[in-house]
Each structure stands twice: as C-alpha cells, then as structure tokens.
Design a protein that fits this description.
Elements (H helix, E strand, L loop, with lengths): L1 H13 L20 H7 L5 E6 L4 E8 L14 E5 L18 H7 L3 E4 L10 E2 L14 H20 L4 E6 L1 H12 L1 H4 L2 E7 L20 H8 L3 E2 L4 H10 L6 H8 L15 H7 L4 E2 H13 L10 H8 L16 E6 L7 H7 L6 E7 L6 H4 L3 H15 L4
Parallel strand pairs: 3-4, 3-6, 6-7, 7-10, 10-11
Antiparallel strand pairs: 1-2, 2-4, 2-5, 8-9
Helix pairs in contact: 4-5, 8-10
Length: 399
Amino acid sequence: MWQLLAATCWVFLLGPLYGCDKKRSITNPEANMNISQIISYWGYPCEEYDVVTKDGYILGTYRIPHGRGCPRKTGPQPIVYLQHGVIASASNWICNLPNNSLAFLLADMGYDVWLGNSRGNTWSRKHLKLSPKSPEYWAFSMDEMAKYDLPATIDFILKKTGQQRLYYVGHSQGTTIAFIAFSTNPELAKRIKIFFALAPVVTVKYTQNPMKKLTNLSRQGVKVLFGDKMFYPHTFFDQFLATKVCSRKLFHRICSNFLFSLSGFDANNLNMSRLDVYLAQSPAGTSVQNMLHWAQVVNSGRLQAFDWGNPEQNMMHFHQLTPPLYNVTQMEVPTAVWSGGQDILADPKDVENLLPQIANLIYNKVIPHYNHVDFYLGQDAYQEIYQDLIRLMEEHFQN
C-alpha cells in the first residue's frame, strides 16, 4: 500500500512532466463506467435485472441477449450463465477488449449470456428489509450463495427465457458455490447442461494465497481487524488510483503488484494498458463472515458449512451440532475443468485431489503457465480455454 501512496504523490509532483494532466489523460473510458455502461459502450445490447432470493437479498444480474450488430433471433438461443470468484463481480467477464472477454465472445457466437453477482458485492448490496449498515445483512458466506443466490438466479433466467436448462461457467468461488449447490440440490443440478469450472476451488489445503494468514488469527482477532460487516470493498481511493495513477505506464508495475497481490499475475499475459479498468472494478467486496468461512476451509482441509461457533447456533442452522460436510461426489452434472500450474489460490495439489471426486468429468486441462486471474484476463485465454469451452457447448447443444 505504501508504494501506491508514494505513486500517488509522484503523480501530483511529476504529472505535468509526464503529460499526466487532464488534457492528455490516457485513462480508458470504461474505468469510469458501471457494468451496463461497459456492455453498451462496446455496442452490445444490455438488460439489467434485480433477482430476489428467498432470504431477501437483491442481486444485480445482467444479460447480453445477442452479439454486437446481430438482430435478436426469434427462436431460443442457448443460455450461458457466468459466475465470478471471491471479492469480485460480473465485470470480470467484460473488462478486457471484446475479442478477449468471454461474455462478449459468447454473445457474438450466438449465445444468450447472463452475468451474476454474489450477495454483498458492489452490484448486489441491497435487501428487502436489512440495511447494509447492519451486521445482520453481512451474516452470510458461500453457504448462502449456494443455497439461495444460485437457485434464485438460475430460476429467474430460465423463467425469463422459457428454457429448461443452461450452461454454467464459474471461476474460483464461482466453482465452489456450484459444487455445493449442484451436490446438495438435485433439482437445480438437472437444469445445468455442463458445468465449466475455471480454477476450481473446493479445498484450499495447499493454497499460498496471502489471505492464508487469516488462519493464524482467532475469529475474534479477525473481527477486531476487519469488523463484522464488509470485507475489502471498492473505495473512492481505489477509484482514484485506477483513473489517476494506474492508467499511467510509469506505475503499471506497482499497480499490477497491488491489484493481483492476492492471486498473482503474469505480466507477459496481461494487457497492461487496461490496468485502470481492472482496478476500477476490483475489489468488489464480500462479507467478513465469508472470509472466516474460507479460513475455516483452509484450517480443516475440507469443504464444510460455516461453523457458527457454538453447538446451539449450528443446531439452529443445520439441525446438527457440527456443520455438515459437502460431498462433491454426489454431483452428477457433466463437468469440464481448467486449472493453472502457477495458481497460488487454486493450488495444483488441491485440484489434483478434487478431480477424482467429480463423478462426471468430461474434460480436464492443466495450463502450466496460468495463475488465478489468467482464466478471465489472460491474453491467450481464447486459445487456452475459450475455444474448447465453446466447442464443448456446441457438441452438447442438443443434449
């Protein structure tokens, strides 16, 4: 952080010398846009919906019904639903140029593309009764995302389109909540044609992510440091850094080190000219409770529901004294997996342990040079992932 503060000072001191004044700004316009505006900026149609979950959370959901310059087809188009990872948002799928953003590529290929947001992030921070200022609003983790968010969003999409099934693409936590939901909710699982798991995370026993240090703290210690509400939200300072500092080539290295400190990155596979767009959309925030849940998973080495801290609370939530384990082997959805050899969050050892548990594994690819963000930001993502992902969809279109 101190490096970014120093960079900010350098902007003010050296701005005129390096042409950093407003007239010569090199900030990408999308850095100052929301999700709908980014989609429209590139010439794609955009629809925005509020999906209400059974427990009252309101999720911002976006649709790109067809490609750029393509008339809407009268017949049903195959549906693809994209779900982001932890502390992220739907913007992950549209923050690169159209020829390298999965959402835009799929829309141009004739798919009806839907982008979801998990509760508590920048675009899903509303509730029918609770205020985001209250601790009660933030009393959730990936348990609730799997139990409420995914079923509500998928039900909404299928009712809106009149179709029976869709393709599901998840990244990181987007795969975790899918593994939980599809293994515990058989009716929901029947609605998924193929589950595409990018950087899948079920156990994080071997993760080298810096957030692993949270596991050294007691639950009370985490709450002293971060409170009991929101974790790592997008702030005014983040936006300032994105548009006034990180848009400058001089600070690309510092900004990229900061932005991807939790996940790692490959400078040779990243479009550095779009760092301001990436930083303007990240982080998007989650709950402190969700991060406590992840710390629990790291410590136990098992995918288990959130431990509420005492038997009485667990009994109230789960009707048993201890949190239930999630059994991934019960999921029968056809599943395709892509993982990275340099991924510090979805560690190769954890992924290797996961693969035998997937009952219906139809495809698996390890990309040796990939880290955690390459799956949606990598400049070679089309060659390494997207072309095979689309091929698998086409092969299973009639199934």
